[in-house]
Specification:
This protein is mainly beta and 121 residues long. The protein contains no helices and eleven strands. The strands form two sheets. Strands 2, 4, 5, 6, 9, 10 and 11 form a seven-stranded mixed sheet that branches. The radius of gyration is 13 Å and the shape is globular.
């Protein structure tokens, strides 16, 4: 069983940066493909970023390319999402996800509870 706990959300002004953390327990991040998603009320959950089990490959949704960076600290068993140049439309609950068997960018079998990010204009 994999447990994921996100933190780092908050209220920021547009144009500023924020880094989210996802602490992983139950498995090492070196065994997992990891992802970040976001959820806005009334909308479908939206894929944001993916990091391979090796930590060497990343994949981003178009909304994240050039502004967001997914990374990890294997020693801390933690995955990060650094978000720069934030926009009001980035507002949402950001969820960390882990995949133990799937190599797909979009398929995960463990999810965290999420952390709220609010970007003011």
């Amino acid at each position: 069983q994999v447990q994921l706990v996100e933190s780092g959300g908050g209220l920021v002004q547009a144009g500023n940066s924020l880094t989210l953390s996802c602490v992983v327990s139950g498995r090492t991040v070196e065994d997992l493909n990891m992802g970040w998603w976001r959820q806005v009320p009334g909308k479908e959950r939206e894929f944001v970023a993916w990091l391979s089990w090796s930590g060497s490959r990343q994949y981003y949704a178009d909304v994240a390319k050039g502004r967001f960076t997914i990374d990890r600290d294997a020693a801390e068993n933690t995955v990060y999402l650094r978000m720069d140049s934030l926009k009001p439309e980035d507002t949402g609950i950001y969820l960390c996800a882990a995949a133990t068997t799937s190599a797909s960018y979009y398929t995960y079998n463990f999810w965290g509870q999420g952390t709220q990010v609010t970007v003011s204009s």
